[in-house]
Amino acid sequence: MQKGFLISFEGGEGSGKTVQIKRLRDHLTEKGFDVVVLREPGGTVISEQIRDVVLSAKNVGIAYTTEVLLFQAARAQLYRELVLPSLEAQKVVLMDRTRDSSVIYQGIVRGFGVDVIEQLNTISTKDTYPNLTFLLDISVEVGLGRRAQTDKMDRLDMETREFHQKVRDAYLTLAQKNDHKRWITIDAEKTIDEIADQVWKGVAKKLNV
Ligand code: TYD
After folding, report:
1. Nearest CA owner, ligand 1 atom 20
2. What does the DSSP 8-state code read for residue 7?
3. Which end of the chain has fewer surrounding CB within 10 Å, N or C?
4. How far apart are the CA of 51 and the centre of ligand 1, in A?
5. 103 neighbors 130 (Cβ within 8 angstroms)
6. Average pLDDT for 125-154
7. Which residues pair with 180 in a beta bridge?
8. For the CA atoms of 191, 25, 143, 147, what is the dihedral angle to 10 degrees?
9. Has residue 1 got a pLDDT over 70?
10. Is residue 207 over pLDDT 50?
11. How far apart are CA 182 and CA 206, in angstroms?
């Protein structure tokens, strides 16, 4: 391995990213890899404070532009403090969402435009892309149904059904385009074990293990 390896998980609400990231972390650790797990927005003390502001259900008055810039601010801090140094130290970095979430939620669904979001992503990540991205695809009904069983409802979870449908469609289109040949789409309505198997196959192939 040259310079570490960045794997991101993307998908709508209730798609089970967190469970799969834990499974993958355990599997990679067993194989002797040095693994770092991070989430966006968040992952550092400063980024977690930004997360509180941007996701709080209280902040319904947040302007779209503010939302765009807060997600990017949290990302800029995270990449400088942890993602880039970890890649430099040849670690495997697993991310629960990163730049593609901004492309989908702010660029496409909020209508900010993909180009401007990608320009901001270039700045916040210092032009870093995941080596591999898993899209955990789930129907809006099942995803929101799962989310409703938890007490994790944040400002974006409370958006309309149409919002979440647009998120799903936009992810599927992006993954199908498959720029940089880094996307793998998985049916997230399968069992946890089946999904974990598919994730591992994808990772093992890329890492040659
Ligand atoms: P989180 O609780 O991590 O959601 P999930 O469990 O679904 O991953 O909250 C992240 C929310 O923020 C989610 O609704 C997606 C949204 N988001 C954006 O809109 N833009 C971004 O750039 C990122 C990183 C997240």
Report:
1. 102
2. E
3. N
4. 9
5. no
6. 92
7. none
8. 120
9. no
10. yes
11. 10
